[in-house]
Write a structure and sequence with these properties.
- By secondary structure, the protein is mainly beta.
- Helices cover 4% and strands 48% of the residues.
- The chain has one helix and nine strands.
- It has one helix at residues 66-69; strands spanning 7-9, 14-19, 34-40, 46-48, 50-53, 59-64, 75-85, 88-91, 95-100.
- A hairpin with a 5-residue loop joins strand 3 (34-40) and strand 4 (46-48).
- The longest helix has 4 residues, at 66-69.
Length: 105
């Protein structure tokens, strides 16, 4: 298992709300920025998440429904977020999580 405190149960809805905190002199918000995100599971399968930016450009959600997460391999997984604005691309840190089997059906 990954060295992480984040455990995600396969077949649950994956939903993360991310808050953007502008740096001094940086972008005031993410309006106009293309934000994408993916999960890379233990089988090296890449799953794109649905990203929805709030109207104020200061928060966004990354989501995958339970039918989609049912296909994720259990074990160590990685998640990051890609930002592109004006041809400049940058990434969040990589977040490690463990995908665990669900017990209750």
């Amino acid at each position: 298992m990954a060295d992480t405190d984040i455990i995600f149960k396969r077949e649950a809805t994956f939903l993360a709300t991310v808050t953007y905190a502008p740096e001094p002199g940086g972008l005031p918000n993410l309006i106009g920025c293309t934000v994408t995100s993916s999960i890379l599971d233990s089988g090296r399968n890449r799953y794109p998440l649905t990203v929805t930016l709030a109207g104020d450009g200061l928060t966004f959600t990354c989501q995958a429904d339970s039918a989609f997460t049912a296909t994720w391999d259990t074990g160590d997984a990685q998640w990051d977020i890609r930002f592109e604005i004006g041809g400049v691309v940058f990434y969040s840190q990589t977040i490690m999580l463990t995908v665990a089997s669900q017990v209750t059906l």
